[in-house]
Fold each of these.
Amino acid sequence: MKYINAIKQAMQNLAKQDNTVFIGYNILYGSRAYGTLNDIPENMCIETPIAENLMVGLAIGMSLEGYRPVLFIERHDFILNALDGIVNHLDKIESMSEKQFKTPVIIRAAIGAKEPLYPGPQHVQDFSSAIKEMLNFPVIDLKSTKDVIEGFKKASTLNSPVLLIEKRDLYDTE
């Protein structure tokens, strides 16, 4: 199975859960998350402006209301814009509330592909190591199709946040 097909299958499995909602930009229009949400009903997708910190806040709020948001950050580089919400809020809500509140947010952050057309240095950066140091919840590198399958399976069962790092250069690999 190709890496991208494993992601598509994971999205379809998540969509079977009544409380799942997909959040991000280019998820309802444009590339539909690089084609990984093509088979997801449009009524399960919330298209946002390019405002990553806002998207994290929306995901947090929806998770507090019983949803399992799947937040798609199209370019890993721009996760930097979301770090306030991720590090200071999403990562801390459970401990700040003395475990009263849970935020089962799944974040998909894609590291840009260098081929077939190099998009420039600001679209292919990888901040995974630094982000892992900042967060108490799982940050999973998806380095293979097997990692995709296992990572999304784990994410779908957690009652806490998880960040899954996709590699666009691997989408067409087995």
Amino acid sequence: MGPVTVLELIRSATTDDEARRRPELSAAGTGALTAAAGLLLPLLLTVLGALAVPRASAGVGDALGSGALLWLVLGGARLDLGSGTLALTPLLGVLLLVLLARSGARRGLPEAPDLRVQGAWLGGYAGVGVVAALLGLLTPVSATVLSLPLPLLLLPAVGLVWAHGLPPRLGEVWERAPLAFHRGFVPGVKGAVVTVVAGSLLVLVATVVHAGRVLHVHSELEAGFFGGLLLVLLQVLLLPNLGIWAVSFAAGPGFSTTGGAMTTWSAAESGVLPMVPVLAAQPQPGALPWVTYLLVLLPLAIGAWLGREALAWVPRLAATRAKLAVVAVAVGVAALGVVLLDGLSGGSLGADQLSDLGAPGLRLGAVLVLELGAGALAVLAREWWTLRH
């Protein structure tokens, strides 16, 4: 209810006369309110958690600082732990913050705001982010300075563009892009989303199959009722992250849960697991059955779907070369999108064995180009054969 209430204030924060006289000031205020709407819920959850979780020993200052850092992490910030770096951004949290920024920009700005008004809105949003970073100093850890532009500027800018479109200069660049890129870009973005969703479904299936192990680890943490709810919420936010790990497993490169211990088609290596209950659903150490290799059918099937989506943007009687160009763009954008999401999600919970977690992004991207491309080319070849005969 907190974020919704604050967003409603965006519409009524200033009068119409004030907005006409000082549009930049009004935009900065609505940007700040939008950021505050997103910051409010993490602050409330961490303060309530500090009060309700049996093992919690943090004071109010630590709880406020932790809530502020949680908000920054949800936006992509990295934390300096002293002995290592926490770089694990819940992708679902990023999506929610982008949607919130889009909603705030649509409600608080005119229909066609100029660049100064948009810049003021971003400035107000970033101002609240700076305050959150300062609150984080109340804890033993802190956000790394180089990672702050992502949650404070880039993330709200994406929401702003989503709400009001590209700035004129960027729009001109987009218009000058090749026709094949125009036609293949949207299917490629959809392909990246479908790939991550498919991996997330694999994680859900594995969690149901191994529910006993997952619940055992959850009970061992003794987080209490409220702490248990927070833990479940965190794992839900991490589901797309784990979906990318699952896609990497299905595609072949595999994933790592500890330094050097990989889970691939052939075997799962043993290692120390982070205390995240859902990770207990991964394959147990040892050789894996031959049917595991059949998981490669998943990216091939996604590639076939992607080929159909891309060809829907091309006239059916267009030249084969034109169709091939659009399919290639769609496959490249989909693979690159998964790699970028993997980079945003991060892969570190500290130092030593937990300093490198997840999928090998570059290798995964290369393999996805081959496997998605194979599925898409099969669809293209079938259409070529049908038209030829």
